Amino acid sequence: MGIVLVAALGQGAPARADIGVETPWHPAAAAYRSMMFLGDLKPVVWDQIGAAYEHPHPAAAVSRPAKIYFESLKGEAATAMVKAIAAKDRQALYETATRATSQLTRQTLAEATASLAAPGKAHQKVLEAQALYRSFGEFIDQADPEAGRRLGRAWLELTSSAGSQGVLGIGAVAPELEVFAGARKAIEEYLAANFEPERFTVREGLTPLPESVVAAQGEVKVKPWLPPGSNLNNQDPLPKLVLNFEEREIKETDLPLVAYGDMLFDSPLIFGEPARSLGLACSSCHNRSDVNQTFFIPGISHQKGAIDTRGSFFNPLFNDRRRGSLDIPSLRGLRFTAPYGRDGRFGSLRDFTRNVIVSEFAGNEPTPFMLDALVAYMLEFDFLPNDKLDKRGGLTEKASASAVRGAKLFRKPFPQMDGKACATCHIPSANFLDRQAHDIGSARPSYEGGRDGAFDTPTLLGAKFTAPYFHDGSLPTLASVVDWFNDRYKLKLRKSELADLTAYLETIGDANEPYQKFEGRKTKFRLNWEELTTFASTFETLLPKRDAKHADLMLETVATDLAADASGMTNAAAKPKVYEVAGYLSDTRKAIVADDWAAAEKSWARFKEFQAKYDEEMY
To answer: N or C, which end of the chain is more exposed by having fewer CB within 10 Å?
Structure first.
């Protein structure tokens, strides 16, 4: 049952997107952390908790169910955990799963000790125990930092004192038995006292905090965290962003309101907790105005590219207790797609935006300027150009013969659909929209006689790149959408007609250049550099007005992101210069906070000087 992987002690949730690939988890640690996270949601996601225990975890280093590891423990640890899940008892779940995970860690350390005569095996067991300790590590570091440092040293001592078998016996190092025993004792005593006590304090939350801390101080706050398998990274390839003003060859630096809105769209600072600390921004889900198809948080997303923004996690006050995870919609062509929200409940983009910030993500009330800026920016989102379509939504000569045949079917009225055609709702000359909500039967009513299955008609422009489809992402391809309508409404289309209609949808949903291209010095960092320095240019508008509130938000966002993005540079030699430039922005912000605008102007001047000086090296 052994597993070998290196786990970063205390590894927490990312502060920004594009943080790299998550270190694989030990199956038992992955299951434990998932069960604790899911158990804190309201309502509790018991079916997924059971699955985390019973089935292989997708974030684990090996495809092996956690229950295999827990069942290896002596006594009734595994049975007690299963009973707690069956009884849907949160406190019992916390106690049994926490004890079992701690016991499993200590059991693995005992196996390491028993293997010291074979240093290679002992070292593997130490790494496995360390991977299990990852279940608790970051919470110990935050809630009991002195113990966290002491245990961190103990793990280093364990690793270094386990010995080495060398290479073919050459360079072998004997284990340091006393050092190993002392380090093991320090770790085991802390685990036993804090995660296997005789009695646990009753917990409100299930974050695995040390019992000694909770007993003395209560449930202290730690940084927001996500379960294993979460992915907040931008998708790859990166969608191409089409902005109306850019297509008109207008510079964003000449549009300070739009540029400030662009910054806000990328800033976690407009949201409340936990979204802010997790680095979530509007662009996390709607990256480059499109759909982030890889976005995923277990328990919050029912599948990749989906999110429940009305549950307990992001804003308990807004919790509708319905587990309503929906497919993330594209925002391309947003000015044409009103009303907003999947059921069209918001007629105003401004009202919809405020709802997202305040109600869904617990942010503070945005200022009128912030809402003006966000709306101004989002109204610039355009659809992807498609040379297979003319401006009225008709096909051009570049469309295939199959698509042309499909266009006729698309416009054909069907008695089974009350004499309507596909084009009745998806009007070609109106960007394939009718701006109305319809109940097509894609969702079951939430109660007998309910009429809450109506959804806003989505555009079909760019649809080739926004799979899966329907409000819940239940259909993986455009072909499956065609099949669904054929079955649902008994249209009795032949296979050739189904293929033609699919070809038409793929044609109108196509694009000339759907993804951002990177080559040479046109790197992702270069894209970020140009974007962030454009955001910074809005200070020229804010400075004369002495607008401290909006300047502070912008400077914190840009300085933080600029420094974080430097890790992805191709020109690694220029990283220190990025940090230097970000430092000037931080200095400007500090001066503003101190109400020293003269100092702020000096730091701002330094930023502009060195931004220009280093610009060619920024890739």
So the answer is: N
**What pLDDT digit, counting tens, does each position of 559-586 carry?**
999 999 999 999 999 999 999 999 999 9
Contact 334, 242 (CB under 8 A): no
CB proximity list for 175: less than 8 A, separation 6 or greater: 116, 119, 122, 161, 162, 163
Q: Compute the Cα dihedral for 372, 374, 380, 383 and give only its sign.
A: negative
Closest C-alpha to 30, from 68, 72, 60, 62: 60
**pLDDT value of residue 13:** 35
- How many Cβ atoms from other residues are within 10 Å of residue 215's Cβ? 13
What would the pLDDT profile of 423-465 be if each residue is shown by its tens digit? 999 999 999 999 999 999 999 888 998 888 999 999 999 999 9
How many Å apart are CA 359 and CA 369, to the nearest integer?
A: 19
401-498: same fold as 244-378? yes
Spans of all domains in the chain? 27-217, 244-378, 401-498, 524-617
CB 323 within 8 A of CB 472: no
- 83-97, 311-325, 434-448: range with highest mean pLDDT: 83-97
- pLDDT computed for residue 19 by the predictor: 54
From residue 528, give the alpha-carbon distance in Å to each of 18, 39, 519, 578, 583. Answer: 12, 38, 15, 12, 17
Distance, in Å, from the CA atom of 353 to the CA atom of 377, rounded to the nearest integer, reads 12
- Asked if the model's pLDDT at residue 406 lies above 50, the reply is yes
Positive or negative, the CA dihedral 69, 72, 77, 79 is positive
Cα distance between residue 284 and residue 75, in whole Å = 45
> Where does residue 546 fall: left (phi above 0), alpha (psi -120 to 50 degrees), or beta otherwise?
left
Does the domain at 244-378 match CATH 1.10.760? Answer given as: yes
The pairing of beta strand 437-438 with beta strand 326-327: unpaired
Q: Assess contact for 57 and 228: CB atoms under 8 A.
A: yes
- Read off the DSSP letter of residue 306: E
**One-letter amino acid for residue 7 of the chain:** A
E-strand stretches of 232-293:
none
Mean pLDDT taken over the chain: 95
Query: Is CATH 1.10.760.10 correct for 401-498?
Result: yes
- 5: confidence class by pLDDT, cuts 50, 70, 90: very low
CB 136 within 8 A of CB 144: no
Residue 444: predicted pLDDT: 87
Tell me the whole-structure pTM to 2 decimals: 0.93
What phi-psi label fits residue 271: left (phi over 0), alpha (psi between -120 and 50 degrees) or beta? beta
